[in-house]
């Protein structure tokens, strides 16, 4: 029963991202900020650190600054700029807090490392916003070769059907929904009560298959990108499942929600940089 909250947090987080991507950047930014809030509230508790209120505030602020920054910048090169700034200042503030606590405080090292990990997770969540805003060019290369040759035509009309948010505002491609679908299907597979030797590879395979099938059904998505994002989502979920089963389910509700929301938030950076790499 303790694992139910973890799974629900991951499923609801991914579903909210997919739905928000259809409505635009502002709703998606709000969802990302909400994800950061869930992680920020439960992460210090999960890590067993002290000074939880101040560290939660830092983790939350870093994620919000990164997400809002990705939403308001006007240049493609700056989409992840504020994530870097928020990460750097967030880590600095964590160290300042530890210094201000004074000498002889217990669990100082654990508090520092745990809070820094939380800052990394929330600042990478901005990749969801950056991924939606990035102008993914899928035009064929002039010589007829390249990544464009992997583009597929879906079974349904891409331009006129925005079902489930695979097409974004104005009919533009939304890779956010594709990644969110892969996370949702992978989360369901990761919840199978069986041995890790079976479930971990199954989670990776199912997430990759879900992304590729989405590309085939709705079209205008490269199979290479879909497979890469699906595999990344599966590996991320499998890693968190392994970690969770080794450590056991957290006792506190906020900690369970943070564990479920963390892989969804961290997936943002993978989505954005995979998009930049394959659609540049």
TrEMBL record:
Tagged with keyword Thylakoid: no
Organism: Nesterenkonia alkaliphila
Record's signal peptide: 1-18
Source domain of life: Bacteria
Keywords: Membrane, Signal, Transmembrane, Transmembrane helix
Record field: transmembrane: 28-47, 54-73, 79-100, 112-130, 173-192, 199-218, 224-241, 253-274
Name of this chain's protein: Permease
Record lineage: Bacteria, Bacillati, Actinomycetota, Actinomycetes, Micrococcales
């Amino acid at each position: 029963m303790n694992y139910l909250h973890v799974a629900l947090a991951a499923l609801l987080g991914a579903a909210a991202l997919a739905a928000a991507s259809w409505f635009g950047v502002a709703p998606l930014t709000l969802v990302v900020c909400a994800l950061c809030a869930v992680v920020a509230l439960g992460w210090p508790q999960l890590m067993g650190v002290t000074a939880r209120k101040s560290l939660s505030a830092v983790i939350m602020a870093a994620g919000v600054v990164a997400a809002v920054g990705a939403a308001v910048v006007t240049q493609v090169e700056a989409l992840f700029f504020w994530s870097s700034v928020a990460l750097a200042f967030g880590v600095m503030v964590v160290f300042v807090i530890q210094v201000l606590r004074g000498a002889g405080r217990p669990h100082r090292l654990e508090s520092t490392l745990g809070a820094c990990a939380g800052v990394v997770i929330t600042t990478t969540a901005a990749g969801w916003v950056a991924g939606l805003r990035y102008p993914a060019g899928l035009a064929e290369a002039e010589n007829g070769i390249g990544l464009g040759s992997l583009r597929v035509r879906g079974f349904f009309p891409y331009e006129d059907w925005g079902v489930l948010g695979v097409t974004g505002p104005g009919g533009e491609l939304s890779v956010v929904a594709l990644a969110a679908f892969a996370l949702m299907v992978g989360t369901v597979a990761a919840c199978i009560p069986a041995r890790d030797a079976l479930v971990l590879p199954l989670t990776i395979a199912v997430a990759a298959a879900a992304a590729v099938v989405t590309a085939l059904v709705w079209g205008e998505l490269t199979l290479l990108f879909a497979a890469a994002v699906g595999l990344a989502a599966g590996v991320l979920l499998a890693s968190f499942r392994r970690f969770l089963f080794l450590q056991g389910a957290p006792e506190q509700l906020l900690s369970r929600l943070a564990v479920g929301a963390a892989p969804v938030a961290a997936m943002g950076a993978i989505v954005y940089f995979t998009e930049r790499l394959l659609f540049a």
